[in-house]
Fold these 4 entries.
Entry 1:
Amino acid sequence: MKKLLALALIAAMAFAGLARNGAWVDEVVLTEEPNAGAAVLKLAAGDIDVYAFSIGDRALFTQVQANPDLKYYSSFGSFNDFTMNHSGDQPFFTDGRLNPFGVPAIREAMHWIIDREYIAQEIMGGLAVPKYSYINSAFPDAQRYPDVVEAIEDYYAYDFAKGEAVIAAEMEKLGATKVGGKWTYDGKPVELKMLIRTEDERRLIGDYISDQLEALGFTVVRQYGISRELSPLWISSNPLEGLWNGYTGGWVTTAVSRDQGTGFNQFYTTRILPWPLFQALATKTTDPILDEISDKLYRREYNSMEERAVLFEQALWRSNAYANIIWLVDRQGFTPVRANVGLAADLAAGVYGSQVWGHTVQFQEEGAPVEGGTIKIATSTLLVEPWNPIAGSNWVYDMFPIRATGENAYVVDTRDGLLWPLHFERAEVYVLEGLPVGKNPGHDWCTLTFVDEIKVPADAWVDWDAEKQVFITVGEKYPEGLTAKRKSVVYYLESLYDVPLHDGSTISVGDFVLGMILSFDLGKPESAIYDEAQESALESFLTSFRGVRIVSEKPLIIETYSDVYTLDAELAISTWFPYYDQGPGFWHVLALGIMAEANKELTFSEDKSELLNVEWMDFTKGPSLPILVKYLEEAAPTGYIPYEPTLGKYITQDEVVERYANLSAWYEKMGHLWVASGPLYLDSVFPTEKIIVLKRFADYPYDLAKFQFLVK
Amino acid sequence: MRNLAVVVGLALGISVLGAAVPVAEVQYISPGYFWVWVQNTEPCGFDNFKLVFAPKGITVKALVINGPAVQSLDVKSGVVKVKLEGALKTGGWLVLGVGGVPTMYTADTLLKYNEAFTAPPRCR
């Protein structure tokens, strides 16, 4: 019914001549408002139109419900945690201070010390449910494994005395003694530094956990701050330096997660997150089975749902025992907006995690979109860390504006986490007979075929020679032949190469091939931009990657072979579209970053920037820009093509000249180097004032009515 | 940074979380038939075990030596779940008789994991 309505709306708008490319609004002005109460007052007064933050305050919820000028979007994918400084599972920091959280058993005992029911009911006013493991209570895996969820909830239920006994035994093993009710080591109190976020209920959560730790006999130092004030300490510092012990964390799932098995690799191993806190994890040594199973779940290295269930159960128990992170609550948050605003809010991620908020944000009259206007959006914080698409900021507050500037080859459905094609027409998925893969109704753009065998063609690229800068084919690496569990074929639209970028360039096949190269190159020690933090990710990737082949350049058709598959066929497609983990990346922009990193002046990742003691790359602002511009001035006259032995076959000199000229003109006009292809472009950034201005990209190729069915 | 952490870890002797209950031996008996020997080497008892076999269409019988009776046995898609009436104590043996194994599998390739998984997975 909803689809019919959407079709009717599209038809009506076409007849009325209302079709509009680029964003519905002319301009988006993003500002910072750390206080949710103040934000609701600003909304009520009409000073802002959207407060893009997941609020969990019951009193504010009542206030918003009661105001006819306001409405709200509910979301279920945000969650809070207590992150501990695991210090590589060492009980002592490098300066000799005792770190109780370096002991896995003490970390695990914190499950019993923290009363999640209290947090959910008393602190969050019922707008949250207790969370005892990584599984989100609203996502499918909670329904798949209810018995495991229940057993874990029983086992880790609040039991202060039990937790205290475990901690006391472990502290004594470490040589600590309790004097006058206070833990001491080497004659001094054992001090724990708690980093407490202040933007939301985490202030109260942090105080509660600190109180519990004091009740155990620890001396607690409380440091309060907002995200960007605390992130240099908890996520960016070497854990062994001991700048902190505990942190009140929060995460957002940016789409409905239909398979949470991929998350263990993120939170419990070194394979995904490039930041020092996660790169120092010692899971591989402390619990090698957790490390192995996390990767198998990530790569779907199982042949049946029964096998997956065994692995998932182990991962849940073992991750709870390893406990570098204790999950506390799944938030049932709400995002308040003015009643005349519409957009596609994600069921899991709300507004600030929605992949298509920029495609859909609009003023409305009687439920219909109105063209134009400036929409004022506040978030709890802005401009936390540098923007670069390879390994820049992953903060939701940074990714929120980034997502509006760029887009992938597909649109993520904000209601169920499935995909809709955007730049491609259709896809085929082939998987081995018997694997647990299904098709979803209504997604006719994707076909699923079960086959007995998938042979990888000898000319498919399966690896990368970083020294010679050429791909290694299947025929070269596996002369005896190679098979895969899954093959996907993506058929791009004929009009792909007409898709304009914000700087006036158009997408080219070179953008795709660079993405393929970077999938390997960063993790190769022979590379000029080798990053140690990428090595374990590449190792995991190569374990299951079986090849990629460009079948046709125009129209672009790409075949991908892998042993990784997904439970939903629609999610098993590999598009290779130039949209990286942290945003859009086109070859001529990334080329400048590659040059700067090769010369050790900037680095894509924070981990490497610490190692080299240079600036973390930012294409939007700060000291990175003059360095990147220096390389632009060098690249343009020399016609520089990164990885020339390979990319030179896909990029013509005409394209090189045009791209660099466009980028130079863009920088002259805009003062930054953030080039994307989405419905809004980055107009200006004011780091000191914490303001970002996005403007409508009028050359955006698609009629925005295309996304209207997601708007509520 | 990662290397530094590991080096320091080894020097100080970091604590290692308990492994799963290991499969002691896989014994070839006759074409298509194997015995799988599981010994509880952990310092506490366990009453449930899960093993993942490479072939899917196998048949399984389970027996405990000097221990509690088998309460239930579930075999599906190569995953074998054994629930005992009580805990298998330290040193106790669980033996699985596995049939219907295609001849391409050997004692080395019969199991996907050389462990019998338990939940919770270790002593507390």
Note: The CA atoms of residues 24 and 38 of chain B lie 5 Å apart.
Entry 2:
Amino acid sequence: MTDGPYGKRAADIVIWLLLLTMPYWLEAVGGYTQLGSRVVIMALAAMSLNFLLGYTGVLSFGHAAYFGLGVYGMGMTIKYLVPSTLAGMAVGVLAGAAAAAIIGLLIVHLRGIYFAMVTIAFGQVFYFIAYRWNNVTGGDDGLSGWSRQPIDLGFASIDILHNQTAFYYFALLCFAVAVTLMAALLRSPFGRTLLAIRENERRARFLGIPVDRHIWVSWLISCTFVSLAGTLYALLNNFADPHDLRWDQSGDFVIMAVLGGMRSFWGPLVGAAIFVVLQDYVSSETQNWMSFIGLFFVIVVLFFPRGVLGIVRRKAVS
Amino acid sequence: MSQLVFYNIFNGLIIGAFYALMALGLSLILNLSGVINFAHGGFLAVGAYLAFVLMPYVGFWGALAISPILTAGIGLIVERLLIRRLYGRDPLYSLLLTFGLAFMLEDGTRFIWGPQTLPFSIPSWLSSPLSNQFFFLTGYRLFMVLLVTAAVIALFVILNYTRLGVRIRAGTLDLETVAVLGVDVRILRSLNFGLGIYLAGLAGVLAAGMLGLQPTIGNDLIMPSFVAIIIGGLGSLPGTLLGGLLIGVASGVTTVFFPSASEAVIYIMMGLVLLVRPRGLLGEEGRF
């Protein structure tokens, strides 16, 4: 994988081909289709986070809140309002975006470690709401008793409930749309401005760029796509779990982005794939999976701070 | 009714004292080293379980004296081996590392002592109510408030009147100058980290006496501690203390009127503070 237009284009093609054919080779290498869906969904979440973390240089440690709003938006819509997957997605994404817009206004002028701390703390509000509002959210037991609905296109309906492969492709479609949009945004003047803010905020400010407003928009975009990932995650599990809102989930997203490489567009996808597969394996092998995941965090920070793609790229350059 | 309110305010003060004790340790480390120690709750649990192990040999008072020191020792080792490597780097990395440590400490205590709640016996003369009218005012609760007060006073005395404390405060303001003046910043950071973890260990022993022993004992306390720091103002230890007590009382009072919001209320307070006074109640302008 080298830099330069051809190398990048080739990498893009390989990644899309791998994603598109995943259901056909995943079982041969010991996976299962649902695991593939989870990789795609978590990758979407991690890449959305990285829009803010890697491309704007703002450290959010509370993205699970917006992910979880997507999860609960989906679950509660299907359970209480209308049995429609698309309506659930709309509600979940809107809920996440609305919360992010409001909270963003409060925190957008904070920086660095302060920003991280406030996002962590704000994330917990939604966790406690989900945890305590028993009769609506199911409390600690989570929200069950609903399932994803066939997608009605007017002329045909797609059964994503029983056909795991169909659900995988549905998730991949959402992933593709979101990721293409984010890539386009990053190539636009707006995206370049975000990079400028990341590299030197003071200089960007002197150039007359309204830094806080740019960071707010970037935060909003990032959180909106994370809630989209949340709605898909709810569909994948047919269940809304309060732990999807908790700070440990936020940490998982950050580690995925760091592990894959924050400075490369596909890095979080690689990180998500490694993390999800590892978590799946470790939690099926041992009760003490938390220790292993914790150790994994420590190892990544100490030995792979640039992430997998960061290392690959440096090797390619030297 | 008024007794109920009084009870919950008092209860809130106790919880707030815990938050403050936790948050002061977090704040010390954050101010000097720029590290958000996610594992602080894990160290609290370690302190609690060490006290449990020590108690049959040295009794409650011995455990109360020794366990926080041992916890601080473990903290020093962790700082030396892991956290020291991350000073001066993006705070992202220390956050992730302590996050992983928090997982390991919680799971480790669960692995060694099991997930069930273990009884933690306190001296019987401390556990009886002091008066019939104020039944909730057990000796232990009063003792806790006194001990936390003593610990906080001791901390502020250390910070204001000892050479170490003055250096810690100076380092918080301008670490580079302190280093240039010939202070070994690495040792200073280690000692400061140890001091912070000592407070976590102390909070752990006290919490065990009130809540019983569980591997997740620190988890419920760490998030409110963050909130306490933010409300009080980053960089200000008196602010952290004030923040801890405030949110404790606020959640205590909310328990009377709207119990299910008792956790959420502190985050709403945080939102209000950030809206009206982004640097926190006693925070310095322009520090963050």
Note: Chain B has a mean pLDDT of 86.
Entry 3:
Amino acid sequence: MSIDPNFEELVKLYYRDLYRFGFSLTGNDADACDLTQQTFYIWANKGHQLKNTGSVKGWLFTTLHREFLKVCRRGKRFAHEPIDEGDPNLPHVAADCMNRIDAKTLLAVLGKIDEDYRAPLVLYYLEDLSYKEIAEMLAIPLGTVQSRIARAKIHLLRRLTEIGAPVAIK
Amino acid sequence: MNTNEAKEKLLLYRGPIDDADPQFQEALAQARHDPELGEWLRDQVDCYNAIRSKLWETELPGDLAQKIIRQRPIPFRRDWTQILKLAAAIIISVGLTAVAMNWWQHAWQLNAPEREVTIKGEVLDMTCYIAYNMSGPEHAADARECIRKGLPVGIKSEDGKVYLLTGQPKHSVNEELADYAAQIVTIKGKETARDGFAQVQVEEIRKF
């Protein structure tokens, strides 16, 4: 089988970002690999339909997120905790506290967050995207993106406090 | 804007990446003049960077890129020109096949193999019938005369199909059929066809 040089370049350019996004969403290597591969598989079949070549990265992220939601809805494999709706207290985080948390713990806590909140939160942390870009990627309104990130962030920091990380609530 | 409202705004602030975002401007200005809010904001940003670094620590599987490239599907590009060409080719092929089958069926009928038949119908003087459309009782005498003279004799079946009647090789049936000119009889014999023209080699004649 001949390799399409554009496809190869595209994979080499974006597979890391997509894998990290998938890994942060699912919390495990196998699912992240599956999502990344599936995303490029879909690109190979449908990518030529994309008119604006400048938005390839956005297209790939959107596709990976859709595939992630499909997996969630199909198998309910990624159990989540409900986001606290009513607590208005904002967490105060000590400057160095997060350095004492390992990535595994962080991913475990992240993985428990409702998937509708998890994706914008992950993009908020991982990618240098504006809120508008995140909203476009996830196909949800800008206001919804910001409120979901805010609530998910509070939830994340609060959960880290509960499991012993030195995060104070003020 | 009080401190809590400023904190709510700045909860989403990530540092330089959001500096140009107008939604943070007022709260950022307040943080510059409020030491407590300023400290809270620095902690928020440090915390953001720490979590971001943790997520970026993820180790990538070494062979993932090659695996994706190797398992790439061969795409089916939807080139409508090609699809239309293919559709046209299929339609033409189907059309040609239908025409060929029709022709073959027709040819088969033109030179149909011999089969036993029993035909009930009027005995015709074929020359007058084909040339002048003359048949029936009013033409009976002339038809008898013509058939007796050896002109082709035929039968028009009840379904309107006309057959040429012939005898066994070297044996004419005209003499026997002349008496039945313009009458309804039943003929038993072997039907064959040549070039679309049906004939029956007579084996038995029965007056109806």
Note: Chain A has seven helices and two strands.
Entry 4:
Amino acid sequence: MTRLTFVLRRLGQAVITLWAVTLLTFVMFTALPGSVAFGLLGVRTTTGDISRINHQLGLDQPLWKQYRHYMGDMLHGNFGTSVTYGRPAIDVIITALPTTVFLAVYAVLLTAVVTVVLAVVAALRRDKLPDHIIRSVPVVGLGMPAFWVGTMLLFLLAYKLPIFPAGGLRPGFGGHVETLFLPAATLAILYTAVMVRSLRASLLEVLDSEYVLSARAKGLVGRRLILRHVLPNAILPTVTLLGLIFAGLLGGALIVESVFALPGLGSLLITGFQRHDFALVQSVVVLSAVAILVVNIVIDVLYSVLDPRVGLK
Amino acid sequence: MSAATTSLALRRRARIFARARRSPWALRIGVTIVVVYALVAAFAPLLAPYDPLAQDVIHSLAPPSGQHLLGTDDLGRDVLSRLLYGARIDLPLAAISTGLSLLAGTLLGLVAAYFRGWVDLVLSRLIDMMMAIPAYPLLVLLLFMLGQNMWSIIIAFAVTGWVSYARLTRGQVLVVREQEYVTAAKLGALGSLRVMLKHILPNVTNQVIVLWASDMIMAISSIAALGYLGLGIQAPTPEWGVMIADGQQFLLTNWMLAAAPGVLIIVLGVGLALISDSLAGRSGRQ
Amino acid sequence: MTTDPLLAVDGLTVQYPGPDGDVTLVDHVTFDLAKGSALGLVGESGSGKTMTLRAILGLLPPRMSVSGSVRLDGYELVGRPERALGRLRGRRIALVPQDPMAALNPIRHIGSQLAEGCRLHLHLSKSDAKARVLEYLHRVGLPEAEQVMHRYPHQLSGGMRQRVMIAMALLAEPDIVLCDEPTTALDVTIQAQILRLLQSVCADVGAALIFVSHDLAVIRQICQDVVVMYAGRIAETGPVSSVFADPRHGYTASLLRSLPDVDVPEAPRAIPGEPPDPRHPPSGCRFHPRCAYRVDACPDLKFELAVIGPGRRSACIHAVTGLPEPDEPTGAEAFAAEEPAGPDLPPDPPDVLGPLAPEAMHR
């Protein structure tokens, strides 16, 4: 199957999945009749207020009609108006998007660098002290809650030793790099714990392989051997994982954004939840789903490019 | 014939723990940790010196002392007691929700892989869809719908969590099915469902337990995260995540308020990770 | 020999630490290789022949310890650091491995893998390297060399891959080529072609050959001298013609008798039993449990290679006197000599029928 056919087929599947997601969110929305009104007016509403607002927002129409409006709006790019911000939800999301994307890229880069360094050291010094230390990282790291790590980092590197700013976002590339370092590092610590193990195992497998033996028999040693024969072969599954992590982060790193007070998609989600702002919540969910689906397709195509043995199904 | 296949199943079950034999200390330490936590959760009322909700504002933010082994928080509540009671929240919540995910997921995976046909097709599409939806937003959406209490957390986690178990079980069953099919055809299958259950379960059990242990770690972390964000369990209930959120303001003065609950979560995570690793054969010499 | 040998292997020993002490995989192997000659290394699987090749190149896993001496033109190889060995591998001693599919990097195309060697050792520019690669691909009988260069290993047939491996080994014009059963993974029809190719290219380049195989017929065809190995030790060595015509070790004779031969009316007799577990080898001569020429003194025999002629040595008790009439050991004895394998963890896959077989034979 050619690449184009593959991509088209996957896009088709993605559209169906996306439709299912929107249906799901719609169903969930209609399962909570009064909350939008609560969100707008606060706790002290009367039944009269609720029905007035419901009428205003078209919530008292038959379900299928609502659904038609809902889908129609969405296809026109209208995700509803955010009651919190009084603007179309889409606009609010787009403002928050750059922060989330920057953080996602930053975190993935840090994770990749640290993971590769640690895994290579562990694989080359197999069963010696550095290896044992590095192998215990996932054991501890998996259980660490992100918000705790973030808080501790804040404590150590922003309060005790004021190296980094304590949250918030500064505009500009340099400002982003500085203010987003701690959040990205928090994420990197957690993801590295997950990925070191798999990369190390992959490296060991490659180091034991026949073609590495053959490469050594040709006279390749040291750095050249690692960079040209070991790492490229071992890193393929890791690349896939990194892609998945990136996709997930595009949905907004809820916790980290909250700890460091960053205006990204994650905090929009939380705000939307607290204010019962359904348009906001729904938009973030749909956008994240789109991001994940697209990135998945990209990963699959990329993998087939990197590994010539793999054919696209 | 059935004796041979039954003994095979038994040997496989022994194999599950055979991997653990490579590093017995890992499994023992892990189980010890988890058991200790479970005991603390069960007997917290007996172990805790104070009522976790009892406020004593005069003595708020006190450092560790003879009276309050770990000091008090901003409302004068004893930190140690709150930590102990916290186990009664996070641990059972995580256990029940992952348990439900496990049951629902493995059952669905088993059914789909055994019957194949449209059942399998529908399930696979469902799994794809669930994997496309980012976990946290969906979780938040569900809590949005169901309200903020323990039961809604359990349901929300179960709804988002069953997918990995279903995928795992389905994959394993498909593999075994192919081989059993051959055997059954050759030996004149006797009640193939029974035969398959006898062989599939021991095979799948190991990986499912490993998955469950990792899942527990994630669940505890997430429950605490939700507590921290104010989206899950709420104050004044002594949940570890909530305690960390409360303690964050006092990092410079009483950093222990935020640090201690985190350490507890991490240690529990280590215990579960050790169990998971030793069962998966990942500890010891490799 | 009047001239010094190109490669002098003396007392080469490879061990690894086991639960009950060190396990010896290669036991004091000693032989010489003359410039331009072809030496065969014969033995069943587990005889240590592959390990010997790897030990010469210094390519053993770090767990294994190597002792003894391997001298290339007088230069000691054992114990050299990796960097020094890297300069020699490919350039002075090259390897043609057993399985060409596994030995090629699956994600790089053939051309780059071949060019790597000559750019590294001969410091050729990209275009010079490319030209050389093409030349050698032609030499090994691959006509569409240009296309082959851009292909990936999985896109070539087994025979083509092995030709590529031969080209890769000879690109840097080494003095010695170590071949590890290069035809085992191939179709019978291709085997002959590859063998002829190997012979001719090595002759062209003037490289000496160490050819490892369990196939006596091939050794007879290609090599001038032969080293017969069993269970890590040398059984006997010497020129191929005299060793095969007049074997002076029970194992050699048994191997020869197991070959089908048009001239001999009797059916070939396979050697009963299996090679021993290196962790618990039989005492004395390691072949005695399976040997048709065994006498009572064999289990107590001290290992020593006796010189029995120009370039001929044998470790057998009958080395000097010649082999007596064969007397097959009964099946039970041969099997009883197998020590049960140590307690290993069984492998993991959900293999329904597999585990039944060894379970049935387990004692």
Note: Residues 330-363 of chain C have pLDDT under 50 and may be disordered.
